[in-house]
Write a structure and sequence with these properties.
The N terminus is likely disordered. It contains 5 helices and no strands. 64% of the residues lie in helices and 0% in strands.
Amino acid sequence: MSHGAGLVRTTCSSGSALGPRAGAGPQGTTSASEGLVDPVYPRTHGALLKVAQMVSLLIAFICVRTSPWISQSAYRYFEVVTICNLIMILAFYLVHLFRLYRVLTCISWPLSELLHYLIGTLLLLIASIVAASKSYSQSELVAASIFGFLATFLCLASVWLSYKISCVTQSTDAAV
């Protein structure tokens, strides 16, 4: 039995299975679903979850930046973790929004997103625990740690959704 390299689709597209020109109108223009921006993605659960994560991480970062610090190293770590997670979540959002996963096929996007959320969630949980323990009842730092825990919960939901999608995709492909 020969095992050759094959193409595995890991995402669903809103386009037609007949090809990129299948939605072309009479003048040869493509339909709206084949444009640069995916018009459906911002309304999906994954996109809304990413937006909620970015907002909570941004609020947590702003709360720490506007407060007088007691423990320099603890809040530097919290700042680094929140801003790095924010940038990575924004990058994944833009990859899905602009359909870059179609162009960059050498990267397994579901796997990279799953690994990012696993590592980022663990670091964010540690940073939130440290921030909560070092807050000394300062309202800005308490708010930052609460939003850090909220972002941790939202990232856990994304881990669950990414894992669920990855398993369903692989088991569906293996059954066919």
